[in-house]
Amino acid sequence: MKSEITYWCPKTSSLVAEEIYGEKWLRFSYENFFGNIGLWALVKRAWFSRWYGRKMDKPESKKKIIPFIEKYGLDCSEFLQEPNSFTSFNQFFYRQLKPESRPIFPGEKVVVFPADGRHFLIPDLSQTQYIYAKGQCFELKSLLGCHRLANQFESGSALISRLCPVDYHRFHFPVSGKSGIPKLIYGDLLSVNPIALRKKISIFWQNKRYIHILQNEHLGDMIQLLVGATCVGSVHFTAKEDSWISKGEECGYFSFGGSCVISIFPENKIRFNDQLLDNSSKGYETYFQMGEYLGGFAN
Fold this sequence. Notes:
Distance between the termini: 48 Å
Number of helices: 10
Helix content: 10-25%
Shape: globular
Number of strands: 17
Strand content: 25-35%
Radius of gyration: 18 Å
Order of helices and strands: EEHHHHHEEHHEEEEHHEEEEEEEHEE
Number of domains: 2
Largest sheet: 9 strands, antiparallel
């Protein structure tokens, strides 16, 4: 019997079953022996994602847009462009929204969620007995590929923001400060859906990813890690590198597929959203939109 993927929805104050895009394919690939063979031989390869990405860039992919909107009940009033104005499915996928659709929670000492999605908080990275599945530990050194950074943030906090194909796929800065230059770490392109993560949490540090350091006057350094996934080989940065940015300003976007942003904060610098803390302690992800209240500066 297949296990149901659920997350906490603040609007309904209840657990919601996630409607997974491509669920049959994902379960076959990650839960079936023969699917695992195909996964190793084909799906995690970069060329597969490039091929599928080009397919979603073609004009004929536009016909998928309206059925996708109707099936998943997307709110078109949030879109900056009309649905029929997109020239391909990929252009629709990384669509921009009207600024008023994602208001930024005000306050100089406030941190906001960097993306729409299902969020899970690890409040202390030195105490990670399990995440997503019992017995799977979160390896910070492997994730960052740098002993110095891993030592710097070994007792920090990590927010895992998991984006599904139905979500707004642009990611933003959670605080103001100076934006660094993203560093690419090459890797595979496996799915970051819980179906996959529950089997193998090491997907996070096996996948292609970018490390982006942001300097904030109060926090010091924080890290924004952009994790590629199946059909999301391309992470596009739109913010100016090595420059001062404002909280909530757009950092970049993902091309077609599910994606993940991992925000890593220094130890004891943030008092996190109580609902996020409580749900994460129970093993649940919580849905929040970009710009909503993540926490406040401590002290």
